[in-house]
Design brief:
Elements lengths: L5 E7 L4 H7 L5 H9 L1 E6 L6 H10 L3 H4 L5 E3 L7 E3 L10 H7 L4 E4 L12 E4 L12 E2 L3 H9 L14 H25 L4 E6 L1 H13 L15 H17 L6 E6 L3 E4 L2 E4 H7 L27 E4 L4 E5 L15 H14 L11 E3 L1 H4 L10 E4 L5 E4 L8 E2 L9 E4 L1 E7 L12 E5 L3 H8 L15
Parallel strand pairs: 1-8, 1-9, 2-20, 5-6, 5-8, 11-16
Antiparallel strand pairs: 2-19, 3-4, 6-7, 9-19, 10-18, 11-17, 12-13, 13-15, 14-15
Helix pairs in contact: 7-8, 7-9, 8-9
Length: about 475
């Protein structure tokens, strides 16, 4: 590779290939250009396909078991309330920018999940949506924030309270955030010296969760000819325009990636995992709550509880094991038996009509070569991710169609997007999409394009 080769990554959190590659491609001219002149395909995410750990898996080429975190919040010990957020302090494996920084290559990073708090790099960083607010240290170097604030005023890290019924306000906030982010991107592309430039836009994820039911005729809550029917399409067209502006700023030595960490799909409902565990006799309360409460605020009878679950786009089931948890009751020789029992019952659990929904239950040791940190005892994809997990207690039902975290119409899907365009590579055009692409493949492909040796412990392959 030539010494002056550069890589630019446009990350679109949650971007769904079924919309971009198929349904709306003809209305996205810049995206279509990159696909036709380059290579593209669906990108299989990690397990689980969640923003954290997916972006870190992508840029380290390591699986969640190796990284030692399995979601936004992870058990920091075997207590019953020891969940902590997965910040950059938990990331102990080299990401692409760490490798490049050590080699003297210049990096610019904007909004990449799990980069807060910021760590030193050979270049510039704006941290991600997990940053508490802009009163926190959200840039590297620290005084870089002044340049950003001079450019856009109040930099928007994320949309506050995107689970809201005020859809007009939500749209306004999404566009404000995206407009400011891309203004910063264009400024930094033009004014900074860089070899590697990566940005991640969270607006795609936020608009999917907020507006999917308005755009998908198969969604239970879809209403024909509603006023938000084209909201997601119009936002994708706006992003495509932003992409087009960026393409005018780069030279023919820059390889462009457009990627997402996972995809999206309609959400058919929620499974109240702890209500189900109570119904089946695995979870016992000391007293019933007066209303709906989070699991952490429920009074649980731990000496008479075998298992509990966490809510989210997928569920994590934890067992109450003797000698491991403070009031553990499951003898270690019964551990696998209880897990298999739970696995069978959860996979058999149907929808509100008793019909099969295709739930998948995974054991961490079957998924990951190693399990660092404290993994869940079981990973559950209700309805193969078409149903979310509702962790609250007091709903008095196993099936719900209202989200305990606020309005949410979409769940995650296992395939994201991958597009690669190199202006100098005349032989890369593909008449059909590539297959077999994995999120672990991005980091080695980036390093290869920059002429950097791929570390032997990276799990992915170079995409050609």
């Amino acid at each position: 590779m030539a010494k002056n080769k550069k890589v630019l990554i446009i990350g679109l959190d949650c971007a769904e290939p079924g919309l971009i590659f198929d349904r709306w491609l003809d209305q996205l001219p810049n995206t279509k250009f990159l696909m036709e002149k380059g290579m593209y395909g669906e990108l299989e995410s990690c397990i689980p396909p969640i923003t954290v750990p997916a972006w870190t898996c992508m840029m380290t080429s390591k699986n969640p078991g190796k990284l030692g975190f399995y979601g936004f919040r992870n058990r920091s010990d075997y207590s019953y309330n020891g969940l902590s957020f997965a910040t950059s302090n938990l990331v102990r494996e080299d990401a692409v920018w760490d490798i490049l920084s050590r080699l003297g290559k210049r990096v610019v990073m904007i909004g990449i999940p799990q980069t807060y708090p910021p760590k030193p790099v050979n270049g510039y960083m704006i941290t991600c949506f997990l940053t508490p607010d802009t009163n926190s240290q959200y840039t590297y170097p620290p005084d870089f924030r002044h340049e950003i604030e001079h450019l856009v005023g109040n930099y928007i890290l994320d949309v506050d309270e995107f689970r809201t019924e005020d859809k007009d306000l939500l749209l306004k906030k999404i566009y404000e955030m995206t407009e400011r982010r891309f203004k910063v991107v264009r400024h930094l592309i033009k004014t900074k010296d860089w070899d590697f430039f990566m940005m991640v836009e969270m607006g795609v994820d936020r608009i999917y969760h907020g507006f999917w039911k308005y755009c998908d005729p198969l969604h239970k809550k879809y209403e024909p000819k509603n006023r938000y029917e084209n909201s997601i399409l119009e936002y994708h067209k706006y992003l495509d325009q932003q992409l087009g502006e960026i393409l005018t700023l780069i030279d023919d030595q820059t390889t462009v990636f457009v990627v997402s960490d996972h995809g999206a799909q309609r959400m058919d409902g929620g499974i109240c995992v702890n209500e189900w565990l109570m119904r089946e006799g695995y979870l016992t309360l000391l007293e019933k709550p007066a209303g709906v409460v989070p699991l952490g605020k429920a009074k649980i009878n731990w000496p008479h509880t075998l298992a509990w679950g966490e809510g989210g786009y997928y569920s994590r089931i934890f067992l109450n094991v003797k000698g491991r948890e403070p009031q553990g009751v499951i003898e270690k020789e019964r551990y696998d038996q209880i897990r298999e029992e739970l696995k069978g019952k959860l996979e058999a659990l149907g929808n509100e009509k008793g019909e099969c929904i295709g739930t998948r239950v995974l054991r961490p040791e079957d998924v990951y070569p190693v399990t660092n940190g404290i993994p869940p005892d079981l990973i559950v994809y209700f309805g193969n991710l078409s149903w979310r997990s509702v962790g609250s207690i007091g709903l008095n039902t196993v099936h719900t169609f209202e989200n305990d975290m606020g309005p949410d119409d979409a769940n995650h899907a296992e395939k994201g997007i991958f597009i690669l365009y190199d202006p100098t590579d005349q032989g890369q055009q593909r008449s059909s999409p590539l297959s077999g692409l994995h999120i672990f493949d991005i980091a080695p492909t980036v390093l290869h394009r920059l002429g950097v040796k791929v570390p032997s412990d990276m799990e992915g392959k170079v995409i050609h």
